[in-house]
Specification:
Layout lengths: L3 E9 H7 L12 E14 L5 E12 L5 E7 L2
Antiparallel strand pairs: 1-2, 2-3, 3-4
């Protein structure tokens, strides 16, 4: 499945943490971030050759520096 950007939002770190059900960004609550909602096939390798595949993913970038802060897959 090709990677598709579904939505891009500017949110605070607190809003991203809420959106990700408590997953902390590690940044102060008022830090502005870009939250990018993605659809595609995302496979993450784990220990013992176990992997997880998701069809919905995200990336979070610092709105001032453009640095990638976090990324991952989401269950539907």
């Amino acid at each position: 499945m090709p990677l598709t950007i579904v939505n891009v939002q500017i949110l605070t770190s607190l809003q991203v943490t809420t959106l990700l059900k408590g997953e902390s960004t590690g940044l102060p609550d008022q830090t502005l971030l870009y939250y990018v909602d993605l659809h595609g096939t995302f496979t993450f390798a784990g220990p013992d050759n176990i992997s997880a595949t998701y069809l919905h993913g995200y990336e979070v970038f610092d709105a001032h520096t453009g640095n990638l802060v976090m990324w991952g897959g989401l269950s539907a």
